Amino acid sequence: VLESKCNMKIIKVYDEELTKKVSSLILINKTDRSRDTNKLTIKDQLTFSPRELEYFKLILDKIMENPMRQIKSTKALNVSRTLIHPRRKIQPHEAEMILQKFIDKKWLVNNSGTILMSLRFIYEMEPFLKNVYTDFVNQCSLCRKIAIRCIECPNENCDDKYHAYCVREIRQKTGQNPKCSQCKSTLPERFEGVGNRQNGNGNDDSGSPDRIQYQSQPGQKRKRIQQMESDSD
Question: What percent of the chain has pLDDT over 90?
């Protein structure tokens, strides 16, 4: 009924942070409804201000630039200093309140001082993530679902990537060390960072250019922020 009347859908998802499949149900929009004017368009319980969304986008950029796909909470707060707003800057206490708001609304997760994208955000904003962060969003080679903090095949000539719970399923089915379905290389059993096969163990939180190649084109961030405002409704 939701799908036919509202173009919304309830989907079954799994938390990629876990090695065991733990399912959740998430309600998502199948299309961008941000410009709808009818009552079927229901905003996400809370209207985020443009300034809050701009700040969120800066945090998201830092998360996606980082091979570990995470950012320290202290760094997330410091990112607010770089926000250019026509009226006024975000003060430190305001940054704390805004960051906590996104955590409370389940868009971000604070894991012992480390900020990650939440399961809800990844699936609700999957089209946005794939469109804006094309080179940073992956697909699991087994279940074919979106993968952000995924396990990479150690073979430099193989591009296969897996969820941790999918790697565990391989071990359970075969009773042996999990192998890549493509090249048969032995897979790591935990997330060690994306794009780090030649760059170390992925523990760096800086997201610096020597860890991963990323460069925004002029006007690209503004375009992302505007799109974020549209997709967030």
Answer: 51
